[in-house]
Predict the structure.
Amino acid sequence: MIQGQLTRLSRTTHGIAYDSTNDEIIAPNPLAAAVVIFRGGAIGEEAPVRTIQGARTGLSRPETVAVDEKNNEIVVGDPGDRRVLVYRRTADGDAAPIRTIQGPKTKLLQIVGVAVDPVRDVLVVSTYSRLPGGVTGLLMFGRTDQGDVAPKRVIAGPKTGITRLRQIALDPETGKIYVAAINNEYLPPYDVDHPRRGLDPDVELPSPWNTGSEGFIGVWDDTADDGDVPPRGLVKGRSTGIVHPAGVTFNARDGEVIAPDAVWNGLFTFLKPELFKRGATEHQ
Amino acid sequence: MLVATTQAAEETEGAMCMMPASARETTGASDGGQIAIPKSSNVEGGDLPPVRMVVDPYPSFNGVTVDTTNDLVMMSDTNRKSLVVYDRTAGSATSKEAAVPRQQIMGPETGVGFVAGVAMDPEHRELFTVNNDVEDRLVVFDYDARGNVKPKRLLYVPHQSWGIAFAPKRDVIALSVQTPNMFVVFKRDAKKFDAPVRSVRGPKTQMADPHGIYFDETHNEVVVANHGNFRPGELITSYTAYDARESRQERSGGKLDENARGKFLPSSVTIFDGDAKGDVAPLRVIQGPLSQIDWPMGVAVDEENNEIIVANNGDNSILVFNRTANGDVPPKRVIRGALTGVNGPMGVALAKDEIYVANFGDHTALVFPRLATGNVRPRRIIRNAPAGRETSGFGNPYSVAYDTKRQEILVPN
């Protein structure tokens, strides 16, 4: 357990990444507009080894992080200002990003997941939108893209089964993207400190955990898939125990897909060794 | 904590009970407390059972409040998403068994989810709890409610509301709200989209990621516990997925204040005038290394004996300050140490010369004499699971990573 004020964590942490090359843990702190990096074996009330925070960082509400171990970079998804920021892995303090993706062409909105494939030079962003014309799905950028650039490909649409999504994970060995499709609906009733404009005062908002929809873990290919395409692999259904999964990762060595589920406040591990075979492209 | 294999799941004859059967029978909890595991599944369609799962089948206490009129103690349960009510004197110093609650409110109809703060109103016989990070609603039940029942009243609240302070003389409730660093005050009987009657928010307030809140009507003060994570107002936006007007770009006319930055402040307790409104400075601030305040969660005031009691989550302790303490001052008493059983304290309450502590780090709530200090055993332990059962520690897990070196799964809350 890592906790306490010296850790510079918050109890609102919606992203995490592990850097196996450098044995470090990376986590965003949206409440303090910061990213904190710990040694891999950190325990208790232990201070981070580095903290990215300050006016030059461009951080506003960092929600999600990924690490590019090959190119020594940390990628941060920040929905506060609708941007993806890339830092040197060793960035510390009030460090400016080395690249930023932001602007209307990007289609970035509610950014909830980022992942990097340094083998195929792909940067994947999961984002959702309830605005007309907005994207709820995966945006595929070039790894070194920056500025107001359009995604090279977009995976979104009814065939994907995604109605709302959260964390993503990417296996550079296979190019597979693992997606936590939470698929619930959540309409915030408040705009910060006052009731949201335009809502019917008599409306009864559904509980985000009692929507009748079903979440899943879906798997797509980060170079072959484009548009409204179904997932190549699935973890979905009553047997799985998962209802609305918000996170996903994998243990490639043992062929396991791992997902926390907020409904059950629990963690579920599934055996899917076929997903981790090199060259596996069939629907599984 | 339950680490179950598929085989173990099958041995439960098709269904894994997520709550002790005895508790279901006595408390009225619904079938919403079960995960069904069918005998067969469509594996090719992805419908495969997990090979392992970490699910805690017991409640994990969070907020705590005491009704001395009816001799009841109520706690919120973040893990199983419920409210649990016990007799005020429930528990024992030595029993290893779970205490039997008088009632439990739980299930999809209740609107009880990732709950935190709680309050009881014996005059109107109402129970309150507020959802913290997801549901954005406060739900109100009758005193006799149990099982999977709809709330008698529902109030939509700002995202990340955490603590509840009930002020019966004023007939209002105050809620702390983490992200905007504020507290808001509603009429007790507010419902649906009724707006707060006032809010306290802004840089002068010195609030930073507030959690516990207490309305001291004797001295007309509001006490707020702060973790210390701070963003200025310029960086605080709503959820842009739903309304483009709410993004920082639109609010600022496309020009972002790139000098705005987050920062870490030392954890603190801020004390405000009971009539505070807007961006106002606190009357007093307890903060600094001598104070030992570290991720304070629940907070309570002993209005008669002039003391502030803090559930100090960061270092597993209970801190007691003079009510008028100000600045970097040490607590007058500290309950800390292995004998105390204080483990991830979240809620704290004071009633009838006893301090109630809701632990999140294990399956207990503790009751100490008011003047307890040091490494002392609790007078009573209210267990929600048999002694020795671990907790997962999960609080609404939204992401995960795998540590390939240690073969460990990392789960932030």
In short: Residues 171 and 188 of chain B are 5 Å apart (CA to CA). Residues 235-264 of chain B form one domain. Confidence is low (pLDDT under 50) at residues 1-40 of chain B. The helical segments of chain B are 6-10, 21-27, 248-251.
